[in-house]
Amino acid sequence: MTDPNVFDSNDLYAPGIGISSFVDNVFFLLLVIRPKYIKRWVANTSIRMNRKILVTLTVISLGLCTFNIWPHHASMNEHKKAESMGILGYELYTVIADTTEKEELIDSEEITQKAVNELKGIEIPESPKYWGMNKGNNLIVVQMESFQNFLIGLTIDGQEITPNLNKLVKENTYFNNFYTNAGQGTTSDAEFVVNTSFYVPENKPATSSEYMNKKVPSLPRLLRDNGYFTSTFHTNSVDFWNRAALYKAIGFEQFYDQSFYGDEDHIAFGASDEVLFSKTTQELSRLDTEEQPFYAMVISMSAHHPFHIPEEKYKIQLPPNYEDTLLGNYIRAQNYADYAIGLFLEDLKSSGLWEDSLIVFYGDHQGVPMYTLSIEEKEQLSLLIGHEYGYTDMFNIPLIVHSPGGQLPPVISGTHYAYD
Fold first, then answer.
1. DSSP 3-state assignment of 399?
2. Which of 165, 251, 327, 345 has the greatest number of beta carbons closer than 10 A?
3. Interatomic CA distance for residues 40 and 30, integer angstroms
4. 58 catalytic, yes or no?
5. Residue 90: Cβ within 10 Å count
6. What are the pLDDT digits (tens) for 104-138?
7. Which is catalytic among the residues 162, 180, 186, 187?
8. Beta 357-363 vs 138-144: how paired, if at all?
């Protein structure tokens, strides 16, 4: 099975840049070295060029290559970095970076909460304002596939794209300046970060890193130490993105995957969000009858790239110019995902879980990347949201918190990076 979010060199705009940057170097170096057959060819067919001139041209060419690579080395997005450097330039850079960049390891005994707080400049108040507000309540975390913040409150031809989340925002606490930290592992990276507060590796998914061989400090472990049962719910196979290793590393006691949900009402890589939320609520209701509270992470998937949902799932009528476009497919998929969340909210309230649980909703990563949009699609999106679509829009994801234990502020607008 191929994940459309995995890096693919075919997605790049200008691989020819890298090729043209290096072919001339090979040619000049061959002439400088001049093995016997090159020497004979030069004598018979060419005018000999001064070696100093050849060396000078080679140095200039290498300098131009470096100039094409180095200005883009600090880019946070590997897709954009490869596009800017050219495919061969990018590959050369990664080889050099992997051999020259060495991490300075710190003794594990020095990594304490006090040291982390000092490094970040964090001062913990003696009496945090909302400390213990939801002590003893269940925790339900809902990770929404490819959901970006610009969808909140957005309408198209007078139709709300996300009516259920819009209502959720108005009635609960909404963080409107919240940004994804997922990397090449996309959805699985978001799972890792939200449960550990660690940064993901620079050039690979967290689930293929050395973290998977460790007992990682995490939210599941912390809650288990405080008497919680911990579990995670996803309709895909646990083997996808190496999640079996991920869940062991971060300490979930139980996972529910495709073997639990089956493959009925298939969308994307597994059962639909409707099936996900329906069966999950039933299981959470059962867990709620136990003496201990629970932490449940629920991961939606129906709105996964390339955002193709069955026609019978359409819940919104799009204008003709949105049909068969990435943006149109994205809007339609997220509108369906919002519909499924609406059903989930109804089930949570009717089962009593809504009043017993701290519930968090957030987007895992971008769904409409700037670097794959055509000029026409960028203009279409900019017209829809009312301004030019940029990186801030692309990485901005919503964070919504329902707190049964007290009244949090309705909107928190400070800038946050997932998942502080």
1. strand
2. 165
3. 13
4. no
5. 24
6. 677 878 888 888 888 888 887 777 788 888 989 99
7. 187
8. parallel
